[in-house]
């Protein structure tokens, strides 16, 4: 297209909008099921066990080490399907684009989004764009909605029992810290890459264990928030072992400097799994045999005799992990 | 909840966000398939003929005569399913909420959204909220993604033939003008209500005609844009009759004063149908027997001997309707 920046005319339903959709969205996202002319896409679903989820994305900056808002919008929603025990099949995409966004930037982001979807084997089959007045849009917001087919046994927090073990598939907080450093607000620099990635290989492997109770990806609010939700939903407490929690030293250093707790930092490519104690070690070995799970660890236990999330510190003390109230890092996803 | 206005803490994944979701979203949208704790919703679909669509909403002001952004977000997406020949079943909802939005306003909007979904018989089963920094969000943006089940024969622009008739289900432009007047930018006042409504009764009735080729709801860009898209996709021209086009006199007066063309104004509760000439009059009678279609009209003909959209004016002249370039009314949906 001839324009270099987004204008309100790109949102008006007319020629400029058609060119924007044809030359950026349809070009990158082309697949047989995407018909930018149609009001609704027809889906081929070989099963009636359909899962449905949605997520919005407002990350700032739009591009960061290890990804951009486009890859994040695919990973975030497909990972929600994956941890629900489903294989992602279809996505829809909403783009809220701020007037003045450079079209080259939008093109890069939608290209990455398309590549990420292709890697995961998910098709973008429906979409909508709106253009927001300058100053009203933070550059770009995306929302993706996903459809997947469930495989294996049903998961749910109601399956969780006293003594179940808690695993995490890799180091926590890389995404939160990578995005924070990309903002250059604190004059800090570092080589930390976002962990944003598909967790599908991890969740597929975990689904083979009949003792698997529940999975979740620790995004906004991190591991501590997943544990708070588990505690509230099950009425059982959780004991976490601080020295088992995988945290990269570079992430820990930034946390030490700025007073962040890695337990509350967002990941975008990790899974927390709750599993019967007999399956905990076999699942750990399985995850550690996959690239995405090399640094997996067993980090805690469900304990019906307490009613808090308790972290046992390295020096033998205990502290209660409260629900997040004040977020140190907004606009992280 | 205790707070009166949205703060960034309502988007952080912690306690404030949980309260916001529990007390506004979950309360209004409660249904057996909505589990605000789950990563993905499980759907019961009795058919494999599944349709999928999405739409974003940025209307300003958030509330206007005849609706608000919440009812619009349900009508917009379920209408896209309806004109594709489907019965809407499930919705997901993304809310991008600006810091500082009054919680009472949000509550009113989500309540209307829930009521509108209930009227149409569609369940909101997945959702996500993000909070945007003050000045970055226009108050509230919504995106809804819908799943429906197709009934009857397959529709598509490729079915359209020379001589097919074009129907519209009611007066055009009410929505665009109602929203514009609600902005109070021009010092104009009027009693015009948005036409925002479900078109499901109209599309269900139309699907009974085997001669029905294609339907679309004329939203952004109006009837002229639907006709441009048809012309471009089929390679056939269109003849429209200006004196057949239903336009309320109050809408026409505002258009005359401000120089708007009703052909380009957005509707949110109208259907354009292309139908075999033998079914045109029976469909018109059927629509006129339904409350939503009392003022339906046959407005034109597909004509393979021309290659433009031509409007025959009341005084016998002809003018070409071009694709919309400059939108007089942005942020209308």
**Approximate helicity band of chain A:** 25-40%
Rounded mean pLDDT of chain A is 90
Q: For the largest beta sheet of chain A, what order do the strands appear in spatially?
A: 9-11-8-12-10-13-14
Strand fraction of chain A: 15-25%
Largest interface: A-B, 80 and 80 residues
The strand count of chain A comes to: 14
Number of discrete helical segments of chain A: 8
- Spell the H/E element sequence of chain A: HEEEEHEHEEEHHEHEHEHEEE
Instruction: Give the low-pLDDT segments of chain A.
Output: none
Descriptive report:
The structure is a homodimer of 333-residue chains. Chain A is α+β, with helices and mostly antiparallel strands. Helices cover 30% and strands 25% of the residues of chain A. In chain A, the strands form three sheets. Chain A has a seven-stranded mixed beta sheet with strand order 9-11-8-12-10-13-14. In chain A, strand 13 and strand 14 form a beta hairpin. The longest helix of chain A has 18 residues, at 103-120. The model of chain A has no long low-confidence stretch (mean pLDDT 90). The interface between A and B is large, with 80 and 80 residues. Strand 1 (41-44) of chain A pairs antiparallel with strand 2 of chain B.
